[in-house]
Every structure is written in structure tokens, then in C-alpha cells.
Design goal:
Length: 263
């Protein structure tokens, strides 16, 4: 019997598949840190805002506070873990020198980005999915447009996977990398309407909130689930999609040039 020879197309995508598999196995091997820890943290948020305040407060007519805050907590898990996966993995490759081995492999810049991005989106989706399952113990969501909600979650995950790659390239050390998460992403999430609708804010804080890019991700995701939001879903999706596309082009340019990857 004559053995079958793999097609050239298969060989061209084999390095990508190998890199994707490596990235997935990387966070699965330390699942207690990459998956369990953020799930426990989100569960504590759900307990505080769901079990204690969920039925006692209401910031949106027709919905309990738990129903209002759960979409934001789900998306927060997706965002944080998507960013953490790409940023930590690429930075460690730079720090340990393993990135040099990747750069000499026949992996194109789009394949490089896609492998890191898909692994990050998988981790973010797993955390977000489990947080949603746990949230059913505290409140029932109407899921007005489930497909749009999933689309918005994937867009948020994709966006922050690109941002994680860019942050890993520009970070000088571990402290710099953690600053992106602690002093940029976290404040923008909290000020983006996770725990309150920006419509209740006095001027000029309501208008300033529209300058927060994470507001559009959070409000768009909540709008798809509850059917109401501070802005239209189309606007939220367009703004978020534009930011995601910009970050993707930026990351592709940096990786294509090998900027700070060979040093």
C-alpha cells in the first residue's frame, strides 16, 4: 500500500496547529490558576451582588440588581482572562528566550496571532461560561438575543487578546505587564458600567463615560441579554469592532516586523 502524502496546504498549517495546541495545553496544565481562580473570584462577586443585594436594589426598571450586574461580571471574566492568556504567554516567551525558536519556524504573522488569539478566546469563553452557569443560582437572565450576546463576548475576547499581545511586546518586566491589568483594564471595567448604568450619573460624568471603550463592550453585551441598554447595540458593536480591528492591525504590524521580539 502506498502511503498517503499530506498536501502542501496541510504542511503550511501544521506549525499553526502545533502552536495553538501548545497555547491551549499551557493554560490547561495550570487550570487551578488560569481557570479555577478567576471562577472563584467571579463567584464571590455573584454572592455579594446576587445573594445579598440582588433582590434589595434595582438600578434598571423591570430588572433586579442581580440581573443587571451578572452580564458585566460574565464579560469581566472573559476580558481579564483573554488578556492574561496572550500577555503572559508571549511575555514569558520573550523573557525566557523561547520566542526566538518561534520566529524561525514557518509560522506566518497571521497564523501566529490567530493561534494565540484562539487559545485566549477559549480560556475566556470557558471562564465566562462557567460564571454564567453559576449565576443561574442567583438570577435568571432573559437572553433577549443570545446570538448577539455570544457575538459580543467573542468580540470582547478577540479585542483583549490583541491588546494582550501588544502589552506583552511593550512590557519591560512583570511589573509593567501587571500595570496594564491593574491600572488600565480594571479601572476601565469598573467605570464602564459593570455595577451601575451610566444614565444615573450626573453631568459631566455621564458624558465622560462614553469615552470609555469598555463601556461599549459591557453595554452591548448587557443589551443583547436584557434587551435594554444605555446605547444601541449597533453603535456598541461598531465601536468595539473598530477598536478590535485597529488593535489586530497594530499587533500584526509589530509581529510582522519582529518589533522587540528578537532582542
Amino acid at each position: 500500500m502506498v502511503p498517503k502524502i499530506a498536501s502542501p496546504q496541510f504542511h503550511s498549517w501544521l506549525p499553526f496547529v502545533t502552536l495553538l495546541r501548545k497555547e491551549v495545553l499551557r493554560f490547561m496544565r495550570v487550570a487551578s490558576q488560569t481557570l479555577l481562580t478567576p471562577i472563584i473570584t467571579a463567584s464571590l462577586y455573584l454572592f455579594v451582588f446576587g445573594a445579598t443585594l440582588g433582590e434589595r436594589l434595582s438600578v434598571l426598571e423591570g430588572f433586579s440588581y442581580a440581573q443587571f450586574v451578572i452580564p458585566g461580571l460574565i464579560l469581566m471574566g472573559v476580558i481579564n482572562n483573554s488578556f492574561a492568556n496572550t500577555s503572559s504567554s508571549l511575555f514569558m516567551s520573550r523573557y525566557l528566550g523561547g520566542i526566538v525558536d518561534l520566529l524561525v519556524t514557518p509560522v506566518t504573522p497571521p497564523q501566529f496571532i490567530l493561534a494565540y488569539t484562539l487559545a485566549a478566546m477559549l480560556r475566556g469563553s470557558l471562564v465566562g461560561g462557567v460564571v454564567w452557569v453559576i449565576s443561574t443560582l442567583f438570577a435568571e437572565l432573559p437572553w433577549t438575543s443570545p446570538l448577539l450576546a455570544v457575538l459580543m463576548a467573542f468580540l470582547a475576547s478577540f479585542l483583549f487578546a490583541q491588546f494582550g499581545l501588544i502589552a506583552a511586546i511593550f512590557a519591560h518586566n512583570f511589573d509593567t505587564l501587571s500595570m496594564y491589568s491593574n491600572f488600565l483594564i480594571l479601572p476601565l471595567i469598573y467605570l464602564g458600567g459593570v455595577f451601575y448604568p451610566i444614565s444615573i450619573l450626573p453631568a459631566p460624568w455621564e458624558n465622560l463615560s462614553y469615552l470609555n471603550p469598555l463601556f461599549y463592550l459591557i453595554d452591548g453585551f448587557r443589551h443583547a441579554i436584557l434587551g435594554v441598554g444605555d446605547t444601541s447595540f449597533v453603535l456598541a458593536f461598531c465601536v468595539s469592532g473598530g477598536i478590535a480591528a485597529t488593535l489586530f492591525v497594530w499587533a500584526a504590524w509589530l509581529i510582522g516586523k519582529g518589533y522587540r521580539l528578537r532582542s
